[in-house]
Amino acid sequence: MQLPPEEESRLTINIVPMIDVVFAILAFFILSTLYLTRAEGLPVTLPTAETSTAQDEAALTLTISAAGKLFLGDRPASLENLPADVQALVAPGQPAMVTVRADAATPHGVVVAAMDRIRNIDGVRLGIATQQP
């Protein structure tokens, strides 16, 4: 009596789980790099302060370049229209924090003038960005 030969199943490599793992790792690295970089606006050289402390993330960032140019977030702003621009970005009735990121070489008068304009807005607090030495 002769037995029929067993059919050997073809070995296949299923790469779908490997692709899933590769995409999961890729997504992890993309998301982790987004949290490593902080979008603080324009690059400025912040002054150093021994007593600087970390604060909660500010809702608005006012950047003042070394030349004295103002940027609210990443958009250019003028000193005259600064209160109106800030009020347009702040939710009514909600307290807001504006962080002033002034370059170390910025003239002091420009920083004080910008801070004075912002202090006249009700419900808006001011913070000054520094870095530790």
TrEMBL record:
UniProt cross-references to InterPro entries, sorted A to Z: ExbD
Family indicated by similarity: Belongs to the ExbD/TolR family.
Name of this chain's protein: Biopolymer transporter ExbD
PANTHER family with a match to the protein in the record: BIOPOLYMER TRANSPORT PROTEIN EXBD-RELATED, EXBD MEMBRANE COMPONENT OF PMF-DRIVEN MACROMOLECULE IMPORT SYSTEM
Keyword Secreted assigned: no
Key words, A-Z: Cell membrane, Membrane, Protein transport, Transmembrane, Transmembrane helix, Transport
Membrane topology: Single-pass membrane protein; Single-pass type II membrane protein
Taxonomic lineage from the root: Bacteria, Bacillati, Cyanobacteriota, Cyanophyceae, Nodosilineales
Location in the cell: Cell membrane
Pfam families listed in its UniProt record: ExbD
Major subcellular site: membrane
Transmembrane stretches, start-end: 15-36
Keyword Cell membrane recorded: yes
Species annotation: Leptothoe kymatousa TAU-MAC 1615
